[in-house]
């Protein structure tokens, strides 16, 4: 068993491309860096990561047939240990294999109820450490090199479980003044968690996403990010590309596209995901 690295994609805002970045960073780590990767979707009942990998219908069919127990929410419930003791292989019950090499534990509708249930747990140590205990006891003994968590775009009990469990954050950000202030707010919030709870959570990478090189504003704000955050900013900008949206709508990433299907921007985006994935792995290793 080797080292298992963990990281969350998180920003207290929706629409920044967190799920798309989680999927593409995961595939880049698996294909370009030759690492075993597990993705965990905590971002809500929409199960967007399952859609990205063409697994949504399979996951929904399991939910509708009630063949969905246990699920990702179960791992953070009070009775998880008792549930897992009844299963021959708890992880096998949770994980779906994708066609692109990475494994996935998809989101589940019961995550909404779980967030409310966690809010009723008085002890913060127990409320925020349940996912960490699950990863420690059930995931780390496996052969995954990297575990990536896609967190909700809001600060809630499920998000905090993810932050406690990984202690590392990748935040996809667009190049706008509002997003710049949100990145500042994220860094402040993580500092508050460190000071209040003693959890050594750090902003590992700000990932410039949906970059539009046609506008001066994106270039100017990118310079502001570099001046403010320095090396925390990812080494390559993810340019906006219609090919990414088209591919994910078809249930795949741009890593499945043939060379003749790749536009210039799609090729640049794919190369940027690989470079950022390599750098992320280096930072996690440090």
From TrEMBL:
It holds the Pfam family AAA_31. InterPro entries: AAA_dom, DNA_Partitioning_ATPase, P-loop_NTPase. Residues 12-181 form the AAA domain. Transmembrane segments: none annotated. Gene3D superfamilies: P-loop containing nucleotide triphosphate hydrolases. PANTHER family: COBYRINIC ACID AC-DIAMIDE SYNTHASE, P-LOOP CONTAINING NUCLEOSIDE TRIPHOSPHATE HYDROLASE. This is Chromosome partitioning protein. It comes from Halolamina pelagica.
């Amino acid at each position: 068993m080797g080292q298992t690295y963990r990281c969350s994609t998180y920003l207290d805002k929706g629409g920044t491309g967190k799920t798309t970045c989680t999927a593409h960073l995961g595939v880049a780590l698996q294909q370009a860096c030759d690492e075993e990767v597990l993705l965990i979707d905590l971002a809500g009942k929409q199960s967007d990561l399952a859609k990205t990998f063409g697994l949504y219908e399979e996951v929904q069919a399991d939910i509708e047939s009630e063949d969905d127990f246990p699920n990702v929410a179960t791992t953070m419930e009070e009775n998880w240990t008792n549930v897992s003791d009844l299963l021959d292989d708890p992880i096998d019950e949770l994980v779906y294999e994708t066609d692109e090499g990475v494994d996935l534990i998809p989101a589940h509708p019961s995550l909404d109820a779980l967030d409310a249930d966690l809010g009723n747990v008085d002890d913060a140590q127990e409320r925020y450490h349940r996912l960490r205990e699950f990863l420690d006891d059930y995931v780390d003994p496996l052969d995954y090199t990297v575990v990536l968590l896609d967190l909700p775009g809001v600060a809630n009990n499920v998000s905090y479980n993810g932050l406690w469990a990984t202690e590392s954050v990748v935040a996809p950000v667009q190049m706008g003044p509002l997003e710049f202030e949100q990145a500042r707010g994220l860094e402040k919030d993580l500092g508050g968690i460190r000071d209040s709870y003693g959890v050594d959570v750090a902003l590992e990478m700000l990932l410039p996403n949906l970059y539009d090189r046609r506008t001066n504003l994106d270039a100017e704000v990118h310079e502001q990010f570099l001046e403010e955050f320095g090396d925390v900013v990812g080494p390559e900008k993810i340019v906006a590309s219609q090919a990414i949206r088209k591919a994910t709508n078809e249930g795949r990433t741009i890593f499945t596209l043939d060379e003749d299907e790749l536009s210039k921007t799609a090729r640049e985006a794919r190369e940027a995901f690989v470079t950022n994935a390599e750098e992320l792995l280096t930072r996690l290793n440090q």
